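User: I'm preparing a small set of examples for a lab meeting where we compare how different chains pack in three dimensions. I only have the primary sequence for this one, and I'd like the structure in token form so I can line it up with the others. Please keep the answer compact; I'll paste it straight into my notes.
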Amino acid sequence: MEAKRIVVVGATSGIGLDVARLFISRGWFVGVAGRNTQMLDALKQENPSQVYTAVIDITHSDAPERLSHLLEEMSDDNKVHFLTDKIRNNTQRINNIISDILNLFSDKPRNTKLIPLNPFLQAVISEARTNDETSRAKIRTDMDATKEYAVFFDAGHLEQILHNLMLNAVKHAGRDDVEITVRTRIGDVGRFLYIDIQDNGRGVGADDEERIFEPFFSKRHGTGLGLYLVREMCVANQAQIVYVRKEIGACFRLTMERYLANEDDPNEDIQLL
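Assistant: Understood. Below is the structure token output for the 273-residue chain.
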């Protein structure tokens, strides 16, 4: 029979310590994590074959990475290694979202810069095709119209906006064969360009169109923050996001100012049209 395993965080004092000792006494392999190195060493010395230790302070940013290492140390199972990779990736994404929320309500200057649009979009789409959350969607592109242009934007914000919109399509399309089209075009009037993210799903109900960008509005699974963050990040970068009604699926349109970028050095010799 395969030995059972458990990880106890906060295992160097109080209830956490009692729980760790209880499972040790029942023959489990126990990963103990906490800040008190002396207690960790004592538990290891008492039961060297059963106990794995890690110094972890959950208030520090390296806590998820240290926890992942502890899990890997406790098992040679490839599935465990796969899951720890997912923990790292998802924790990083959560940290990014929290950071974005904090940045939206702070006075810190944004890290805005001129971004050659098409190469940036291709990189984000390539990541989406392998990302666990969005990889099941078939992503098409139609971006010839903007191959010579750049946008002035915070790169982290733009990446998060595109990820949130594609993830929204996967979650709410209501079908397994999700198709997403990323389409760019030049505005009919003025200095603007558009990025459309359109899916082949069930779309947004007419009664919900006015509410989809509200915080915590969600009729299905999710926090209801994805589209709200998209809107706030657009506002922070002087861009606009709107829902465009289509016969099939949902379509979200980003509108932003366009720039001409030198192909040899996109951060030099750039002119506002």
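A couple of notes for your slides: Residues 263-273 have pLDDT under 50 and may be disordered. The chain has two domains: 5-104, 112-272.

User: Perfect, thanks.
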